[in-house]
Design a protein that fits this description.
Blueprint: H1 4-8, E1 17-20, E2 27-29, H2 42-55, E3 66-67, E4 72-73, E5 77-78, E6 87-88, E7 91-92, E8 97-98, E9 102-103, E10 108-109, E11 113-114, E12 119-120, E13 124-125, E14 130-131, E15 135-136, E16 141-142, E17 146-147, E18 152-153, E19 157-158, E20 163-164, E21 168-169, E22 174-175, E23 179-180, E24 185-186, E25 190-191, E26 196-197, E27 201-202, E28 207-208, E29 212-213, E30 218-219, E31 223-224, E32 229-230, E33 234-235, E34 240-241, E35 245-246, E36 251-252, E37 256-257, E38 262-263, E39 268-271, H3 275-278, E40 281-282, E41 291-294, H4 304-308, H5 313-329, H6 333-354, H7 363-371, H8 377-403, H9 411-423, H10 438-468
Parallel strand pairs: 3-7, 4-8, 5-9, 6-10, 7-11, 8-12, 9-13, 10-14, 11-15, 12-16, 13-17, 14-18, 15-19, 16-20, 17-21, 18-22, 19-23, 20-24, 21-25, 22-26, 24-28, 25-29, 26-30, 27-31, 28-32, 29-33, 30-34, 31-35, 32-36, 33-37, 34-38, 35-39, 37-40, 39-41
Antiparallel strand pairs: 1-2
Helix pairs in contact: 5-6, 8-9, 8-10
Bound molecules: zinc ion.
Amino acid sequence: MGCCKCEEHEWPDPQDVVYTDEADGKEYCVFHAPGDKKIVDVETFNKKVFKRIEDAPHSSSKELWCNLSGTIFPGKIDFGKSRIFRYFPNCNFSGTSFCDDASFKFCVFEHSALFSNSLFFGDAEFNSTHIHGICLFSEAIFFEKADFFRAHFYSNVLFSKTTFHGMTIFTFAVFDKGVHYTFSCFNYTSDFNLAKFMEASDFEKANFYETISFKGSKFAKEINFKNTKFINGADFNKADFFSKASFSQAVFSGTINFLEINAGIDSLLLHQIDSFSLSNIIFTSIEVDYILFSGCYTWPDKLYTEATNSQDYYASEKMYRKLKRIAASEHDQPMVSMWHFREKEMALKQIKEKRPKWWRFSWLWLYRFSSGYGEDYRCAFRILMWLLLAAFAISSLIAIISTGFSPRIDWDKVGWVFESTLRCIPLTKLPTENGNLGVWYYAFISVFQLLIGIQAALFAFALRNKFRR
Ligand SMILES: [Zn+2]
């Protein structure tokens, strides 16, 4: 029998047993014994670890890797403190537990570094750490701060299913090859400001529960945010997207800032985004060109710029106009209709701002009132019916005034009222009015013929828009 963990982690050199668990009879070496059963103090233990790393050959052969997998580090450890341990051989830290702060500040891993399934109970410092080989942090858990400020990863990196409970810092980090954060959970604020992703990278199904910032980050190749959840907002302000970025079915529960991003035309794919998420995206007429909305079937009534930045109606008008143009180029007529309505609404709000008392005396208001800017055929039909009713009411009034009120129904007069109403409709062929009603009657007929004619045209126009779209 020897150390059960040395056996489990396939250490090539099983270590001497220092502790036996009386409950199950399992034996442990100094590296694998629980923190309080190591029989040595933290300093002596750390020296043993440093010695093991120092003695390991700098070889790429897997059998010669420095195996520290499953080790329990009982106290603070600083690998970067001494220059001797600055340059690491291939190291396997998989399944290790760091019970206190662990610092790899300024360390250089000349080869690979494996930290899969590791537990960092204290702060994890990888500040300015350089890792030249494959780097694995899959399924690791960081309970406190994870600091990768200015870290440089020269090869592929895996942070899949990694959990970050504390603050996560990847500011100025450089990923020369692909990095994968699939299924990772960021439970506290995360900072990827000015990070550089030089190859295709992946955040698919990652969950950001607190604010996340990619301000000024550079995405040189494709970046995947499919099904990623941004629960408390994300900031992509001034980020550079040199290739495609996919946000398919992403969830934006907080605001997503795309202002001043640099990207190619249609390079940010926002596919199947729900209405609530769409209402949280911050962009202007400039960024519209970079974003391709597809399969977004339900939209909020107002986009973020209009809903929150209520003073700048001109900016919103420009944004809606551009969205309308894009929708028209894609022959997406229902969206053309929607953006057209919002665009005109913004123009009307600007009139209201300039003329708070007289804004209703504008052609635009009349256009909205009579037909919802040519988009609402129901409204246009309603107004048309009201005009006919008004013509009927006025004709009735004329009939009553000209002959006086009588409780007996005069069917001739009733017939005349209907005839008079019909005269208000343009192009109706009726015999000339023989009565002597004067110029006002003919003025009334002419005005109503004009109004009803225009309104009928607006109704036809709105109806055509409805069925064409
Ligand atoms: Zn052991």
